[in-house]
Amino acid sequence: MQNKIQNKSEASVVKIPKSPRAPTLDDVARNAGLSSMTVSRALNTPQLVRPATLEKVMQAVRATGYIPNALAGGLASRRSKLIAVVVPQINNSMFVDTIQALSDELAIRGYHILLCVTGYSEETEAELVATLLSRRPDGVVLTGIHHTHELKKIILNAAIPVIEIWDLTPTPLDMLVGFSHEKVGQATGEYLIKKGYRRPGLLWTDDRRAAQRKQGLCDIFFRHGVTHLAQVNVPLPASLSLGRSGLAELFAMAEFDVIVCSSDTLAQGAIMQAESQGMRVPKDIAVMGFGDLDFAASNRPSITTVSVDRSGMGQRAAALLADRIENIERDASIIDLGFHLIERDSA
Length: 347
Fold this sequence. Notes:
By secondary structure, this protein is α/β, with parallel strands linked by helices. It is 41% helix and 15% strand. The chain folds into three domains: 23-72, 434 Repressor (Amino-terminal Domain), CATH 1.10.260; 80-178 and 309-336, Response regulator (Rossmann fold), CATH 3.40.50; 179-305, Response regulator (Rossmann fold, 3-Layer(aba) Sandwich), CATH 3.40.50.2300. It has twelve helices and twelve strands. One of its GO terms (molecular function) is transcription cis-regulatory region binding. It comes from Escherichia fergusonii (strain ATCC 35469 / DSM 13698 / CCUG 18766 / IAM 14443 / JCM 21226 / LMG 7866 / NBRC 102419 / NCTC 12128 / CDC 0568-73).
């Protein structure tokens, strides 16, 4: 007798759990024991709702985890409460204080920032701004005044407030808070000439604003008969190690009595390299920076530099932009922050 063993293959059914449904306005209404219309009114125009009702709605919002649709809620007022902020870097100490002050001041006015980084590329800036505008921000903050034709066209077509920072021009796209980089270079040159320095070496990053400062600096030196300025360019972002290697490269070219750096970070590295090679700053060689970063005054020797009110720039840009959005009249749409040169031990 032959035993037949039959293996029955049964289909295995795996139930995939459904993704949890996001709580809706109706869920909040049921939790609060109110109508959806009342809940909507409480969330969009809380000043028109009794405090007890508003508190009941907010308790229901917390209980359900409901997230109001800020864009949909802002359609009637055409306000998203978002500000697009475009900067070249966030790992550059020069911009950190400005971004923080900008964010803090805008938060006081009820706005939040969308931050994007361009990496010093004007083409990337244009692409990012086009993407950001799809979020319907109430305003845009741009770093610098040099933009592609495409970006200018996008901004004009968007017809929203725009403020440019960190530069100066009499013809901004809309509003501006900044200072003249060329004048910074000129003031630096005049100071160094007055101190008697005639053999400068330049340690510089390759970006447009630094180039403007260098042009102002060179103009002053040329005017006083100093026509040869040896230079080493270093990539962005500036760093202490680039300051050290850059100065070592300069020392291989010639002898100098002052090293002018496009940032305090490079200046700090240059000081370290000079001392590692047995040179005393400023007795054997002077070093000049830019930015007055947090460490500049505490460095040994302390760094002679140019100070710009970075936090003030963010605060004033935020106030100017928020006022424009809210139709508050201002006397001026261009603010020149100026700068001041700080003489310390290094030069």
